Amino acid sequence: MKDKTDIYYHNVSGRSFTRFLIGLMPRIRQWIVFSTNSRKAIRKGAKLGKNVIILKSLADKANSNLSIGDNSSIGSYKIDLRSPVTIGKNVIVSNDSEIITTSHNIDSPDFGQKYYGIEIEDYVWIASNALILPSCRRIGYGAVIGAGAVVVKDVPAMSVMSGNPAKILKQRKCIHDKLVIPSLLSGDLKIYWKTWFSRKK
Fold first, then answer.
1. Across the chain, what does the average pLDDT equal?
2. How much of the chain, in percent, has pLDDT values that exceed 90?
3. Stretch among 32-41, 61-70, 100-109, 167-176 having the lowest mean pLDDT
4. Which H helix or E strand runs over 120?
5. Collapsed DSSP state (helix, strand, coil) of residue 98
6. Which end of the chain offers a freer environment for a tag, N or C, measured as fewer CB atoms within 10 Å?
7. What is the predicted pLDDT for the residue at 6?
8. Distances from the Cα of 143 to the Cαs of 1, 152, 158, 160, 190, in angstroms?
């Protein structure tokens, strides 16, 4: 870790060897799971950065429309990949959130599909059970989507959104740049290992 004042570094580097080993076990298990998921998604055409956490159910349906940046944790499989979905770095998408990117033309006699896509910028947090509709094409840098919110339009950077339809409650004061996001689901094996062994440097 570059910043040796950060909480993660101190929590990990201060562990005894026994505590380090205890923490290593679940991380090895999760690394196997998440690495398998990532490799599967990449084989199916997705573009994934380093230390990306995705569920098997999302990897199963992945395609070339999916792009996820470094250190992002995607805890939901309810992402519509019929249109491009670009997710930035250090993004958290919590369980059961749903992102819909494609709709229908109600004025078309054959009810033809309309493809939109979405870009989710760095350091966004989408909380549990949020619903992002196709009319939202961009969620700006550092924005927070509250649990259960229904997002019907683009979200400005650093905005905290909630409600149905979602409205801006306030502006976020900082991003989660000290958080090691893969550690939320014990997917931080490489970071954990490197941090502990770099403690004497």
1. 93
2. 77
3. 100-109
4. strand 118-120
5. strand
6. C
7. 79
8. 25, 15, 4, 6, 28
Determine the Cα–Cα distance for residues 69 and 76; give it in Å rounded to an integer.
16
DSSP structural state of residue 108: S
Residue type, 21: L
Distance CA 108, CA 112 (A): 6
**Could you give the C-alpha distances from 9 to 24, 80, 82, 91, 163, in angstroms and in order?**
15, 36, 40, 20, 37
Q: Which two tokens stand for residue 50?
A: 């380093």
Is 104 labeled as catalytic in the residue annotation? yes
CB 59 within 8 A of CB 37: yes
Catalytic residue among 19, 39, 43, 104: 104
With 90 as the cut, is the pLDDT of residue 84 above it?
yes
Question: pLDDT tens digits, residue range 29-78?
Answer: 999 999 999 999 999 999 999 999 999 999 999 999 999 999 999 999 99
Rounded to 10°, the helix 17-43/189-197 angle is: 140
Handedness of CA 134, 93, 88, 40 (dihedral sign): negative
What is the reported pLDDT for 113?
Answer: 85
Set out the domains of the chain in order of their start, with CATH numbers: 46-185 (2.160.10.10)
Dihedral sign of CA atoms 25, 31, 37, 40 in order: negative
